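Input:
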Amino acid sequence: MSCENVQKQIGLLLDRQLDADGRERVLAHIETCRACAKRLESMQGLRATMRGMSQVQVPPELTARLRVSASHYCASVERRRNFAARMSHLRERIRLEFDNLMRPMAVPVAGGVLSSFACFLFLVPSLSFQHNYGLEPPIFHPDPAIVAGFTDPEGELVGATNVKLEWGSSLITGDEISLTVLVDPSGQVQDWTVCGGELTDEMKNLIMFSKFIPATASGQPTWGLKQLVFPRQRHLRS
Amino acid sequence: MTTSILDLSPDRPAETGEADDLLLVEHLRQGAEGAYEELIQRFQQPVYALALRLLGDQGEACDVVQEVFLKVFRNIANFRGQSSLKTWMYRITVNEAYNARRWFFRHRRREVELDNNPDETRNWKENIRDSSRSPFDVACDHERHVMVEAALEKINPIFREAVVLRDTMDRSYEEIAEILGVSLGTVKSRILRGREALRDELANSLHVTPAMRLVPKTAE
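Output:
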């Protein structure tokens, strides 16, 4: 056999594609021919190198991609099985789309609500009405109508015997005892100032046990001053 | 001299997983979720290795492997079992690699690759080598692989397919004929010519002129 023929058959020899007769002939030639033996050796080395090249490691991202593809395909197969599965998938899809649609709005909406709440907290004190935090009661002149106590059917305060409390004014006449009462938010007289005479015990009782409609400020009961009089002719005895 | 021939690896044992393959195919047809995972676990490595050797590019190989598995998922109902599952998948891989190569030559020939050293971008776990061998052996193997890969890329793709399937993927001549859809004689011819071309390319790459020649001299 010529070297050219043997070298062509070395590949078949290595791949075990030669019959026994052909194999014997090639091996016999190789034993006597250094060049062909060298060719056989180099071919074996090349084959070993190429065999080692199959040991490549699969990139982890490829495995992940394949799993995602399999999952998608599996889901699509499941979806095609029956009408209920298809509807269920459609519902899930709509819910997912809605969530995805709302998600970009969640942060701005939450931020808007929080910022408006903070603004409200900061602005409320400056928007409220003027307050009087002093100890002095407000001097209003509302109508502290008398609602309970020693009242007669005409709405006048009647004492136990012969004293009568009437609404007064800043104009004081000589036949009456004028007084200014301080009415608290509950309608009780807390203090008074008398001008033009002295009060009897009966008058004092009448004042202290009477109940008034308190003055109001912004709809809320508050302290108030009221001018009252006792007609003098009723207590001539005193 | 002949002792090296006697050391030839014995005939490849028959594929023992054919029954498993049929069972796997049946489960895939039924749409069992675990079957897809098993298919991936069992075949991703050989399919990726084949695609990588045919294309010589990691990114392209990953795309091709994904396409191969998608085609397998879609067409598993049409798999009639005339060949083994692995042979069928190899055939799809070879076809997809051919399509990718054709697409590459049409569209991406002029693109410039920025990352030409994939080792730098790989995870450190992927770069761990076998620690039981000496660094010299590992380096030699690596160099040899790089040279063979470069030579493979230069030979005709028709021959490359046959040589890679035979020498790298360890397929029999009959299986290669089935995968490539050609006759047995054509397979033999392609393997022979492919190996010759590969050998020539390697011989050319080793013929480098030394930059400096050292001449021994005796001390005077």
